[in-house]
User: Fold these one by one.
Assistant:
Number 1:
Amino acid sequence: MIRAFVCVARRDLALALRRKSDVANTLVFFVIVTSLFPLGVGPERSLLHAMAPGILWVAALLASMLSLARIFEPDFADGTLEQLALGVEPLSVLVIGKIGAHWLLTGLPLTLISPILALQFDLQPLAILALCGGLLAGTAALSLIGAVGAALTLGLRGGGVLAALLVLPLYIPVLIFGAGAVGAVESGLGAQPHLLLLGAFFLTSLASAPWATATAIRIALD
Amino acid sequence: MTTRDSDTYYSGNASPSAAKHRIHWFHYASPQTFYPLAGRLIPWFAALAVLLGAAGMYVGFLVAPTDAQQGDAYRIIFLHVPAAWMSMFLYVVMAFWAGVGLVFNTRLSAMLATAIAPTGAMFTFLALWTGSLWGKPTWGTWWVWDARLTSELILLFLYFGFMALQAAIDDPRRADRAGAVLALVGVINVPIIYFSVIWWNTLHQGASISMKSAPTMAMTMLLGMLLMALCFWMYSIATILARVRCILLERERHTDWCMTELRGTP
């Protein structure tokens, strides 16, 4: 079972790394969206400083969501997903492998690049730490929740927009606690409660989202 | 399930006389038997909704005293609180029936879930709208980004997502099951809305009615609110039954009983 999980994750990683531009696009999107805000609201430091946690989190959330179609759509189109579902290994474990690969290709790079953007918004070091910690657990939860939406909309007309409509309401708790953690540090309170809640969200979605995703894939394959 | 089928089913484990007295709970799970039953029940629930609504409005607008702090503006709660209750409650009911449909593969439960969604969305919208009408004179603003308002808005989006997903899938059975998965995932939001007033320190006041402590409001206000809540219940049941009848006819139109029903001849 572990071997199947590792195998699926490595396969997805290898496929994605053959086309590096796909991975880079998500990051570029993240950077562009965050740099649009200073242009939109004006370069006033205090205003941007106050808005920074929200901007960074919303941009990370959108970047993660836009890459959702990559998890299952190509495999669904060429029949690989059907073969995976027919196999002896439990589909939910294989799904975790695919989601893990998606997180390594979107969530992790986003987390790694976020300190640079946070510096541009003049966040203090502790707040940057809270941002990175939050993004680390939060983007993993986003990938897990997003996979449910991506699986539900497999092969539908206008699936991408529909997946956004389904997934964004479910993302909101992650956004609230993620941005809240950074805001709490900025206002002198500890980020710990927010980060613990984010961790709880991550673990809850890790326990439930793969089952829901596997069920949704089976429904789509019928 | 026809009578003959159910008799053979019970004959294996019970004497025929015992089987005769047992209520056949699943008898009405069949679309063919449910359709006329729903048709007979709708007028009763509709009439109850009108009566309870009239009584609730009378108590709420004419009998209940004016609030010391908020003046007459508070009277919107007779619509607002029951609507907010229904919006959350209907989501749970919808998720329950969708889950039953997913697990037991019963068509009627899934159709019921589909029928509940628009009514639930309507009550969510009503709760938000009446809330903002009440917020303007009381808080001085139509809208605040407070935890309860925001999570109620998320609930509206969850209803929209459920309906949009079902509308996007052509095969009704796949739509039922995909919607069920989404409804069950989204049900996590209901406790978040319900407890948001307690968990976060927000502008929205705490729950109006608590089971544990003595009521903090006048008895007539409570009565008006409960009457309106019952009215909304009856209204929801009536509209949902009417809608599920339409869905039944649409999906089962190839069957004999539907043909007879549609042509109007026995």
Number 2:
Amino acid sequence: MKYASQAVAKPYFAFAMLLFVGQILFGLILGTQYIIGDFLFPEIPFNVARMVHTNLLIVWLLFAFMGATYYLIPEETQTELWSPKLGYALFWIFAIAGVLTILGYLLVPYARLAELTGNDYFPTMGREFLEQPTITKVGIALVVVGFIFNILMTVLKGRKTVVNMVLITGLIGLAVFWLFAFYNPVSLVMDKYFWWWVVHLWVEGVWELILGAILAFILIKTTGVDREVVEKWLYLIIAMALISGILGTGHHYFFIGAPEYWLWIGSIFSAIEPLPFFMMMLFAFSMLRQRRREHPNKAAVTWAVGCTIMAFLGAGVWGFLHTLAPVNYYTHGTQLTAAHGHLAFFGAYAMIAMAIISYAWPKLHGRECSSPQAQRVEIWSCWVMSISMLAITLLLTWAGWIQIDLQRLPGDAGALGYMQTQDAIMHVYWMRLIAGIGFTVGLGMYLYSFVVARSTREQAPALAVAQ
Amino acid sequence: MHSPESVLSQADSLEQPRQLPGDLAMWCFILAELLAFLLLLGSMAFARGHWGEMFSTGIATLHPEAGLINTVFLLTGSYFAARAVHRAQAGDHRALVRGFILAAACGLLYVGVKVSEYGMLFADGYNLRSSTFYFFYFFTTFFHMAHVLIGMLILLVVAWRCRQGQYANQEKVRMASESAASYWHMVDLVWLVLFPLLYVLP
């Protein structure tokens, strides 16, 4: 690494991976509970497992984004981080608060957790993905503000590039939209309406800026293509992401009590949402074609390129499958949504996190890249995880189709009840569980690649001297 | 009969590569923007096919004279922008700055008229929720107006940077000015489709 303060990224990456493992383990529990309803009941009921699975996902991605930022900002600004100490302090605060919250979910009944954490005084709990106790939410807000302050101070004293400008814009957006987690109106319609300002405007808005910036950074470093070219692509991608993504929020407003015109806005702008992801894919391939150097870190390039393909499929194609209002009328809240959610989160965000970790981790340990053996294991793990996730997606799509066919398309008299439909899907859930185990094997291989990298460290090229 | 030399020089001039005005990235952006408008207009055509009467009665409540005035403003703005680019190619950077400011001023007049038109319709009790027609009218024209504002911003940024001497050479001036003007013409072009569809077609 070129700057000593880039080392702040290390604990963030390591902790992100730890939480990722936790997320996948809870995913396996959930996959089993779909088949054996009382598996691990009453210790870990389905609703708690689901909460832990989704919350761990969000938190590990936040850790990975923060780690990525701490790694790339000094290099982009060509200056040391404003305060590495603040970076480490915030890591511990965030990590401890995160662990306590997860333990709270697992050890205390949710209603009791709400009582213990004073939810009555400032009620924000009890909403999907925003289940965190209010004090944890305040903690997240403070950590993010401290983090952005540290990054802003660094950017102000250093070089301003399009990559760090886009990244910081994305991070500020992330902080701003988090504020809607504290807005909890009595009206359920209003509640859901603004709830999406956190959920949708994060993942289909500002997070795409963060994704774009990290992807651009990796491609600049690994292909050696002119920064000017990369920046133009980045501008185009984020402009399209914002134009389509902001108004695309409408696809969540179809049947929740919001005005009827959202049927039009949501359908029209969601139809454009695959475009920025398609452009991201073109961007990655075009940069690879124009590359001026053969970077030895093949694993990082595999993750980065794979990320654009899987994001296009998961966020773009699987999103568009059900964002047209007349389609969504039948597909709303079926397993098709779960199919889209899994592939989109994995493709767009988990894979970019692994791409930057793959690029940065060896450099943080004094090597240009991992040894060829370690990279081979890592590239295999990328394939195993990607194919398993595609299998999960296709199977959940199949499950969703069964739900639509039996439960949604027939008239009231002919429609099958929810639980009877679940029985009809059982064989698909079994296959999904097997695919989930496949994914866990892929994750195990990925972690094993770090062990191989460590034991074959001597065979990895030493870090080039900083210019 | 032509001499071989003159034929050759003619061929040379014919074979001169046709250059894309402005940056390719800007053209990608323009095409993406046009796609968004195309989807909006396509949906509007679909809605019109279904609720023809609602559209006819809705159109009768609009103010076509305001639409016509705005068409003139935008076309005048485009004239200034195109002329500015032309003059800039001859090296007259002051004319570029002046022309882009005038074009942006036309945009501002457009926005003024549009906002007062909205005011009149609101006063008559129409809004985004009144009917599918009013949704399309308000939303599409507002979305277009947002693009007028973006276009104005682009023109003013290029004018300001040109005035500050931030473009290293003539080629950079050409690239920036043509890109900005191309975007502005796109905004103009969309309006030329919107105006007859929303105000004129009974």
